[in-house]
Design brief:
The complex is a heterodimer of chains A (114) and B (115). With 114 residues, chain A is mainly beta. Chain A contains no helices and twelve strands. In chain A, strand 7 and strand 8 form a beta hairpin. The chains are: A mainly beta (114), B mainly beta (115).
């Protein structure tokens, strides 16, 4: 079965700092990859997704993620974080065949200090 | 348009009691998912419904857990004889169509506390 690892559980940054959150998955075939975000008091929402094509995908609010197939990674980046980016970030994956439900990582709590 | 609606938002129950959690998906969404979010453990898949197909129950942790989806719309997750380890936030999500690349729309969840 596939699994997703997010190695950073809690990240604290100052505003304007650059962000990179790691995500690695275990599955040898074709995958679909997602990042979801949960702002305080809100429901989970899609940040960005990768299905095929350009491995560098751009999402909302200046976020981007790069799919590196050889490293089984899909790291999330943002050049300059804002206080409003404080949230919990979840990486998710599912294979292009088989089960339709996403497998999520354990999440990374990002705290941006003003 | 309304998003995914879950009720109740909070539920406190005594160990050994049964609970029912409800999910109203977005109208027209054919797929419905239940996940469980425990502190520090991310989202754990429980069950998935797609149209009239047999549900994928592979994530249900024990036979105390069951779910149904009536008329292809509203879903109910039932936990029988609740245990303290069942305490978590139960999230429902729906997606527009079959296929692994259809984004999920989540509800706000039901926070279940078993005392």
């Amino acid at each position: 079965a596939q699994s997703v690892s997010q190695h950073n559980h809690h990240v604290i940054l100052s505003e304007a700092a650059s962000l990179e959150l790691g995500c690695n998955y275990s599955y040898g075939g074709t995958v679909n990859l997602f990042w979801y975000v949960q702002y305080p008091g809100q429901h989970l929402q899609l940040l960005l997704k990768y299905f095929s094509g350009d491995p560098l995908v751009k999402g909302i609010k200046g976020f981007e993620a790069e799919f590196i197939k050889s490293k089984f990674s899909f790291n999330l980046r943002k050049p300059s974080v804002q206080w409003s980016d404080t949230a919990e970030y979840f990486c998710a994956v599912n294979p292009d065949t088989g089960r339709r439900a996403l497998t999520f990582g354990s999440g990374t709590r990002l705290q941006v200090q003003p | 348009g309304a998003g995914v609606s879950q009720s109740p938002s909070n539920k406190v129950t005594e160990k050994g009691k049964d609970v029912e959690l409800r999910c109203d998906p977005i109208s027209g969404h054919t797929a419905l998912y239940w996940y469980r979010q425990s502190l520090g453990q991310g989202l754990e898949f429980l069950i998935y419904f797609q149209g009239n197909s047999a549900p994928d129950k592979s994530g249900l942790p024990s036979d105390r857990f069951s779910a149904e989806r009536t008329g292809g719309s509203v879903s109910t997750l039932t936990i029988q004889r609740t245990q303290q380890e069942d305490s978590a936030v139960y999230l429902c999500a729906s997606s527009q169509r079959a296929g692994t690349n259809s984004p999920l729309h989540f509800g706000n969840g039901t926070r279940l506390t078993v005392t």
